[in-house]
Every structure is written in structure tokens, then in C-alpha cells.
Amino acid sequence: MAQLSLICLLLYTSAAAVVGTRLLLRSWRLRVVPELLIGLTYFTAGAIGYPFYVLAAALPGRSFSLTALWVGWIGIVFGCSCSLFFTAKIFRPGSRWALTAASMGSLALVVTGAKLLFESTSASDPIALAETTLLCTEATVLVLGLGYMWTAFEGMRHYRMMRRRMALGLADPVTANRFLLWAFSGAVSMVWNGIAWVYLLAGEDIAAAPVPVFAISLSGVMNAVLLILVFMPPVWYTNWLARTARAGTLVEA
What is the pTM of this model? Predict the structure, then answer.
């Protein structure tokens, strides 16, 4: 299991780096905010934050371990905050409560992350440090779980709206499919989040336990594939969606 978890972690890091970089380059070229936010999410949290967080638990020296922990946790907090604001901007543009929810979620991530980092740096009691780290990680996972739930809900809500518009000829199948894939992405992330939560409640370190590392990394690879289909769909995929939609229309007719 440990070797499989390592393989999935490497795949996740590579996929997140590629997808994140491509989205950032696209946002720079087109001057668009959505690709910037989600690109930062995958590049900072996926390609940098999470692998450094896992690496921190494996490094022998305290100074190296703390450095990796700081880099990892800052990347995770920043990237996940970008994800919250992405959901607010795309699915609830102009909504005050959505912007407030994203801001409150980001603030919670910053506070818990800062407490974990400073306690890890200054604490001398291993038992107290383990308890503080566990509580901070549980709070972070809880915020992330709520964020992924929001993502899945909004994606499915907009997919259903697009389906109704498609029936009237007011929407195309590619756009509708993007919302469906985004809902799947949120659901996949909810699954790994639930697995991590179970291990945290059992007092396990999710950065060191093989099962949550495997679950998080595998879901990351799946999400990277979903992101490619959402933001950079291959021609064969969009053509398949168009053919499927036309076939469905003919059957209904």
C-alpha cells in the first residue's frame, strides 16, 4: 500500500503541475480570472503544498521537516482559498453571501494553518504538539469538506439548468458537460476528504498513513483529468459530446 500511495502521490504531483501550469499560462494569455484561480489552486496546493506536507512527515531532521511543513501548509492554504473564491465567482457572481462564505472559509484556513505552523515551530512537548496538530488538521479538513460539498452542489445545479436550456436550444452540450464534470470533481474530493476525516478521528497522521495518502493522491489524479476535460477538452471529446447530444435529440424527436 505504501508503494502504491507513493506512485499515486507522484502521479498527482505531476498532473497537478502540468494542469496548473497550463491553466496559469492560459489565464495570462487570455487575461481571465477563473483559469487563474483554479490554476493557482492546482499549482500551489497540488503540485507544491500537498507533496511538501507529506514530505515533512518523512524527513529526519527537524529543520528540514519544519521547512517542508511551512512550504506545504502555506501552499495548501493559499491554493484551497483560491478554490473557494473560484466557486464564488463562477457560480454565484455578484452574490454577497458567496463572497462572504469564501472569505470566511479562507480566514478559517489561514487561522488554523498559522496556529499549526507556529505551534510546530515553538512547541517542546511532543504530546501537546500532536494534539494541536490534530485539531488544526481536523479543522482544515472540515472547511475543505464544506468547500467541496459547495462545489459539487453548484456544479450539479448548473448542469441541471444547462440541460433544461439545451432542450430549448439555448445551451450547448460542451458547456453543460463542463458543469457535470465540475460536480464530479467536487464529489471525488468529498470522498477523499471523508477518508481523511475518518483517519483523523482515529488519531492517525494523514500525511504518513498510506491509505489517506493513496486516497488523496488518486483523487487528485482523477481531478486533474476532469480539469483537462473542463478547461482544455480534446477535440475528440467535444465531438463525442456533440454526437451524443444530436443522437439524443433525434431519439426524442
Answer: 0.83
Q: Retrieve residue 10's grid coordinates.
A: 507522484
**Structural contact between residues 42 and 227, judged by C-beta atoms closer than 8 angstroms:** yes
| pLDDT at residue 153, as a whole number | 94
| Mean pLDDT for the stretch of residues 101-114 | 93
Domain interval for residue 41: 2-252
Domain count, the chain: 1
Between 48 and 211, the higher pLDDT residue: 48
Kindly state the cell numbers that stand for 50.
Answer: 500537498
34/93 Cα distance (integer angstroms): 12
- Spatial distance between the Cα atoms of 46 and 224, rounded to a whole number of angstroms: 10
Question: How confident is the model at residue 247, as a pLDDT?
Answer: 60
- CATH of residue 73: 1.20.1070
pLDDT tens-digit map of 143-169? 888 999 999 999 999 999 988 888 777
On whether the CB atoms of residues 171 and 162 are closer than 8 A, the answer is yes
Whose cell is 464534470? That residue is 181
> Are the C-beta atoms of residues 61 and 105 closer than 8 Å to each other?
no
Those residues whose C-beta lies under 8 Å from the C-beta of residue 24, and which sit 6 or more positions away, are 35, 36, 39, 40, 43
Written as nine digits, the cell of 206 is: 494523514
- Burial class from Cβ neighbours inside 10 Å (0-12, 13-18, 19+) for residue 73 reads buried
